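WARN retry 2 of 3 for item q-0093 after timeout on previous attempt; input resubmitted unchanged.
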Amino acid sequence: MPSIKAEALTYDVIRAILDGHKTAIRRPIKCSGHKVSDLLSSKPTRSASYAFSAYNCRTGRKVGVFLKPRHRFGDIIYVRESFAETSSLSNICDTDGPVFMSDFSPADLRELRDKGFRWKPPILMPKEYARIFLRVKRVWPEHLNDISESCAIREGIYAYESRKDGRSKKYTFSSAKENLYPSALNAFSKFWDSTILSPDLPVFGWSADPMVWVYEFEVISREEALGERSDA
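OK item q-0093 returned
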């Protein structure tokens, strides 16, 4: 039976998923007290673990470790996102139940912020509020910098024609057409670093080229997701 686990995602990531534009997500591969450096075998073991070489930060030596991805083929991810209780948006929204930040345009969000409104962070979103469910179609490990231009597009990078003749494009990770870059890879690298805390950039930032789990997914309905779980 597939498992169902949460992932907290940002505003731009959720907007890209809702647009049908994002079909993959990358997550750093972590192992307590170690820096995972290389994949030793491209094939998983029978227990779905992968063999990696890693640097033991305590002993200063390289060791072999076996690690499993958080999500496996067929598993379901429910998305945690920034939200608000309906009562907090009086005279703004008449929807019953929770209201989600990603349903508002950047201009709307600026107006709400100027009025002193604050959203609750994804980590506080109750599971019963979940509305976006993703089924994992493929999962594999790779170095972050191995991502191709086409795979960067599947990560939710938008392409915009920068000339009227359509011969030149600019790329961004924001649906608001902000922060345009010359390639999807360049845009994705900037997006990636924006998701990593400053103290972690030397280990998990783009220039560090860490090992990552790659999850390809499809969006499914709440009924389909929870219908596969007798305990949901």
